[in-house]
Structure formats: structure tokens, C-alpha cells
Amino acid sequence: MKIFINGEKVSLGSESATISKALHYYLSPEQQKQSFAVALNSDFIGRADYSQVSINQGDSIDILFPIQGG
């Protein structure tokens, strides 16, 4: 299955996948421990739903990390 994560084309290999699987594939273990927000096709998804929300061929996932500064 081919999807887009942060604008980058990614192949997950299987026909059925969830947000959790895509995050595990795309993010490093360090990044997975950080705070971030996820949007699937521009709709934000709550962390509790990552393992339940299915993704489809051609979907777009945006992973947003907070920016500190001032």
C-alpha cells in the first residue's frame, strides 16, 4: 500500500494498515516517545484512536511536532 507521510511517498507493504502501523514504520523510536499530533487527510486523529483508524491506498498522513522557542 502506498500512502504519503509528511508529503513523502511511503510503501507500507500490506493492504491493511492503521495509523499506529504507519507511525511505527515512519518514526524512529525516539520520535515515537515525543509529543506529536497526527492528521489523516487533514482530519486530526486522537492518540487513543491510532490503532483503530484504518488507512487506505493514497491517504495522506501529517505528523506535527510542537516547536519551542520565543
Structure, described:
This protein is an alpha+beta fold and 70 residues long. The chain has one domain (2-64): Ubiquitin-like (UB roll), CATH 3.10.20.30. It has two helices and seven strands. The protein has helices at 19-26, 29-33; strands spanning 2-5, 8-11, 17-18, 37-40, 43-45, 54-55, 60-64. The protein has a five-stranded mixed sheet, with helices on one face. A two-stranded antiparallel sheet has the order 3-6. A hairpin with a 2-residue loop joins strand 1 and strand 2 (8-11). The longest helix is centred in the first third of the chain and has 8 residues, at 19-26.
Explain the layout of strands and helices.
Blueprint: E1 2-5, E2 8-11, E3 17-18, H1 19-26, H2 29-33, E4 37-40, E5 43-45, E6 54-55, E7 60-64
Parallel strand pairs: 1-7
Antiparallel strand pairs: 1-2, 3-6, 4-5, 4-7
